[in-house]
């Protein structure tokens, strides 16, 4: 009887689990508050499909494919909606948006109990954002223009030393942008251009982003949250210390310098000790964000834009012609003069549309009681965000959305075509929208213009065979907040004048 009883008990439990699973699937598909929204059936029964896509670095492509099939508002998980709709910017990220910031996932995003400009809300966010914004005004950028130009010129010098031999241009883009930001913030570069190699912290950035993605998606599961909460504080302290060690050392070294002679902008962020400035904890918490945000995204964009130009040689030829005819000397390439290069700026805008540096909008949660987004009522506790990559490639808003066509950004009088007149270019917001948009937009554009113009003025570039014909790898490249570093091996032959 004992064996029979055990068999009956096991069978009953198995049937119960199966019925619970089937019932949950039926509820999620047909009776859940989000059941009215279209989406792949295999995805809406839970979070496993979107979790796997995120862990594989394919979240942007997963959402892109879903929007192409199901429309502008898609249910991509049982409790999550993805928006590739123009109104989504305002309704999810605008000043009047009735949604909540997603809470920090792991606790390692903070240093000394201080939140960053990314996670802070209310008055704390406003104060930090205003102080950070003072770093990136046009006046400040022009004041620091020699710093940026010096590093761009050093890049040219280092590339010239290869004398036409193969060079991993993508790595050198990273060396340049990180050295620029290190110099801007701390008064000294990270030394990557000089040493021709990554510092360990920069090399490991994508591993850190993968780890954060892992924690972020698993945080949606109650069991994981419970286990995470049980972790000893020593483990969290170790993770936090590892994340902040490099930039923390930079901050501490900087603060020990004489206030009268140090040149970096970190001291400026302290606001002279006033309430308007950042406190020490906030300085530490924001340091890695500032370095990463002003470096990795720009280098990624330079890499992808250069590749797109290689794959569209007519566009490359047109851009090279504009740059070389505009300047008789490299010294003439300046902040103001770059603003006047219409095709250069069109290429940059199209590159940002084609491969937005942050392909997934930051997550938000609908509060209790629900709200209306893009004309649809969305119930409380729903996760929402703009699918940036899918939105920028939407055929509703762009003609030939999957083609790289800088001309769409030009007026007809400047070489544009009337077929792009209906493009809703105003929705292409690669630096996001609203109070939490990127404060370093102007600096980002300056980095892109300056570095690309310097490289194309000085060198004839040729993409090497191992990267030629690599559209598939680029279109399917992984993304953990930013795109992974794709190889971009080229021959850079100096132009003889």
Automatic annotation (TrEMBL):
Keywords: Heme, Iron, Membrane, Metal-binding, Monooxygenase, Oxidoreductase, Transmembrane, Transmembrane helix
Signal peptide: none
Gene3D superfamilies registered for this protein in UniProt: Cytochrome P450
Keyword Transit peptide: no
UniProt cross-references to SUPFAM superfamilies, sorted A to Z: Cytochrome P450
Transmembrane segments: 6-31
GO molecular function: heme binding; iron ion binding; monooxygenase activity; oxidoreductase activity, acting on paired donors, with incorporation or reduction of molecular oxygen
Needed co-factor(s): heme
Keyword Oxidoreductase on entry: yes
Annotated InterPro entries: Cyt_P450, Cyt_P450_CS, Cyt_P450_E_grp-I, Cyt_P450_sf, Cytochrome_P450_monoxygenase
Positions bound to heme: 438
Family: Belongs to the cytochrome P450 family.
Protein name: Benzoate 4-monooxygenase cytochrome P450
Organism expressing this protein natively: [Emmonsia] crescens
């Amino acid at each position: 009887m004992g064996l029979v009883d055990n068999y009956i008990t096991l069978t009953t439990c198995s049937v119960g689990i199966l019925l619970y699973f089937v019932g949950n699937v039926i509820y999620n598909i047909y009776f859940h508050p989000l059941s009215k929204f279209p989406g792949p059936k295999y995805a809406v029964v839970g979070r496993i499909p979107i979790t796997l896509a995120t862990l594989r670095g394919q979240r942007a492509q997963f959402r892109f494919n879903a929007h192409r099939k199901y429309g502008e508002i898609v249910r991509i998980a049982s409790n999550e909606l993805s928006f590739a709709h123009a109104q989504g910017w305002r309704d999810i990220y605008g000043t009047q948006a009735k949604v909540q910031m997603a809470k920090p996932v792991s606790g390692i995003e903070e240093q000394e109990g201080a939140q960053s400009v990314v996670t802070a809300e209310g008055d704390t966010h406003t104060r930090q954002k205003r102080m950070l914004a003072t770093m990136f005004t046009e006046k400040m950028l022009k004041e620091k223009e020699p710093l940026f130009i010096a590093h761009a010129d050093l890049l040219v010098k280092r590339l010239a030393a290869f004398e036409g031999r193969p060079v991993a241009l993508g790595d050198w883009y990273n060396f340049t942008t990180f050295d620029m930001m290190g110099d801007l913030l701390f008064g000294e570069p990270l030394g990557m251009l000089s040493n021709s190699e990554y510092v360990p912290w920069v090399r490991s950035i994508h591993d850190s982003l993968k780890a954060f993605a892992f924690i972020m998606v698993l945080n949606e599961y109650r069991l994981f949250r419970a286990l995470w909460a049980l972790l000893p504080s020593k483990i969290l302290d170790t993770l936090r210390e590892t994340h902040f060690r490099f930039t923390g050392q930079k901050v501490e070294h900087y603060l020990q310098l004489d206030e009268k002679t140090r040149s970096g902008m970190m001291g400026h962020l302290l606001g002279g000790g006033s309430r308007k400035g950042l406190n020490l904890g906030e300085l530490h918490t924001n340091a890695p964000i500032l370095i990463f945000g002003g470096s990795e995204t720009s280098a990624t964009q330079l890499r992808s834009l250069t590749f797109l130009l290689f794959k569209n040689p007519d566009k490359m030829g047109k851009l090279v012609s504009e740059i070389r005819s505009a300047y008789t000397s490299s010294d003439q390439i300046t902040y103001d003069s770059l603003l006047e290069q219409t095709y250069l700026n069109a290429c940059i805008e199209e590159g940002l549309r084609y491969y937005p540096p942050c392909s997934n909008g930051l997550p938000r949660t609908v509060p209790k009681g629900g709200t209306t987004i893009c004309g649809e009522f969305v119930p409380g506790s729903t996760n929402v965000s703009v699918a940036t990559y899918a939105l920028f490639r939407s055929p509703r808003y762009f003609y030939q959305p999957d083609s790289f066509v800088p001309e769409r950004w030009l007026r007809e009088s400047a070489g544009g075509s009337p077929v792009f007149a209906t493009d809703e270019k105003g929705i292409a917001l690669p630096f996001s929208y609203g109070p939490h948009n990127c404060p370093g937009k102007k600096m980002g554009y300056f980095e892109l213009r300056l570095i690309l113009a310097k490289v194309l003025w000085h060198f004839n570039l040729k993409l090497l065979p191992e990267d030629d014909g690599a559209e598939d790898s680029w279109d399917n490249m992984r993304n953990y907040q930013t795109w992974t570093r794709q190889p971009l091996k080229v021959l850079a032959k100096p132009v003889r004048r």
